[in-house]
Structures are given as C-alpha cells and as structure tokens.
Amino acid sequence: MSTIAAIQMTSGHVVEDNLAVARKLLREAKERGADIACLPENFSFIGLRDADKLAVAEADGDGPVQRFLSATARELKLWILGGSTVIKGDDAQRVTNTSLLIDADGRRVARYDKIHLFDVAIPGRNEQYLESRHVAPGDAIVLADTPSGGSECPFATTCAFPSCTANWWREARSGCRRRQRSPCRTGRAHWETLLRARAIENLCYVAAPAQSGTHTSGRETYGDTLIVDYWARC
After folding, report:
1. Which of 226, 163, 228, 215 is nearest to 42 (CA)?
2. How many Cβ atoms from other residues are within 10 Å of residue 52's Cβ?
3. In this predicted structure, what is the pLDDT of residue 88?
4. How far apart are CA 168 and CA 145, in angstroms?
5. Which of 61-65, 73-77, 96-100, 146-150 shows the lowest per-residue confidence on average (mean pLDDT)?
C-alpha cells in the first residue's frame, strides 16, 4: 500500500518563489514516507492579473516548471503530480491549465489539460472569475497507473464542481485517486461536501490538495486540503 501526500500552498506571482516552497514541501512529504505527492492546482503561478499567465506559459516538454518537477522527482525518488501549471497552446491568447504526472525517475507519465473551466459570476455581487478568457479547455480524460495500486487503481485529475465531474466519472469510476480544487466562496460552501460525496458514490479515495489563503493578487482561496476514503472519512 502506497502513501499519498496532499500538499497545500499559497502560490503567488513569482514562479521561482513558488517552486522553492514546493521543493521544501515535497521534501517534507518524502521524509514523512510519501510515495506520491500531489501539488495543488496553479502551484507554480497565480498572477497579479489573470492575463499574466500568458507570459509565464511554457512550451510543452521544457521550461523551468517542467524541469523542476522532473529533477525533484528524480532527486527525491518520489512520484509527483504537478497539480497544474500553464502550457502554451495553439492560440497565443490562451494557454492550457495542465496537470503533469512525473514518476520517481523524473519521467513524465501523463499530461491532463483541464476540460471543464471555472467560469462563475456570484449573484448579487460584483464578483466573477472567467478562466476560459485566457485558458483553452482540454478534450481528453487521462488515466495513468501509479504505485498507489497499479492498473486497478488509476490516477486522474479534474475540477471539484458537479458540472465538471459527470463525464469524468463515467470514464473513471473504477477506483481512482483524484485531485480537486475550489476557490474561497464556493470552497466554503461546497468543497468538503463534494469531496465526500464523490468518494462515497464512486467507492474511491479522493486526494484533494488545495490553494489556501490570500495570494499576492489579493485573490482568496479556501484551502482545507484533505484525503477522503470511500466511507467519507478524512
């Protein structure tokens, strides 16, 4: 039985600073016995403005974040899920929100581009977030074997909300470890409820690393990183 770590961060707008924090937390996860460590969505960068992600996006296959994930996994002999980082796409005005799974030899095992993007307007408040403005959606669900259980227990990533999960679960019902996230207001209302519900109804473990706190942009995220079993126990 493998040990999985879910890592919580408060990422900001300086990639190097975020990677330094991630390196420290990944090392701690390894020292505490983890075989797989899951970083949160946007672990490498949360810009001062949403459009800032265009300037730090990397070409697929190479860049500071991708080299960091590979080198750290190889150094620590640790599987790493790079919760998500931004990768250049075909459209110069939109990137992909991409999860990268790296094995303990530093090799990329899987890439998942987030399919269901987070567009929300809060009723009665002058508050909205439109991920699709600068992010292009993916078009494929991805599963990968990991040390957590081989082909009988694949690993996959997705977003937390009900509208985002229906197609994913139709493809990946058979016992997946799963990574989710949620911003602050919706996180406070839905985060734990959705995580526990998805674990129960699909009889699986859910690993949920998260962003937490106030970021350098002023944006707030909810946190509450947890791992849930299929009895909804943390």
Report:
1. 215
2. 15
3. 97
4. 17
5. 146-150
Predicted confidence at residue 137, as pLDDT, reads: 94
Look up tokens 């959705």; give the residue: 194
Portion of the chain with pLDDT greater than 70, in percent? 83
**How many angstroms separate the CA atoms of 176 and 110, rounded?**
15
Helices 64-76 and 15-31: crossing angle, nearest 10°?
Answer: 20
Cα–Cα distance between 154 and 90 in angstroms, integer?
Answer: 29
**Three-state secondary structure of the chain:** CCCEEECCECCCCCHHHHHHHHHHHHHHHHHCCCCEEECCCCCCCCCCCHHHHHHHCECCCCCHHHHHHHHHHHHHCCEEEEEEEEEECCCCCCEEEEEEEECCCCCEEEEEECCCCCEEECCCCCCEEEHHHCECCCCCCCCECCCCCHHHCCEEECCCCHHHHHHHHHHCCCCCEEECCCEHHHHHHHHHHHHHHHHHHHCCCEEECCEEEECCCCCEEECCCEEECCCCCC
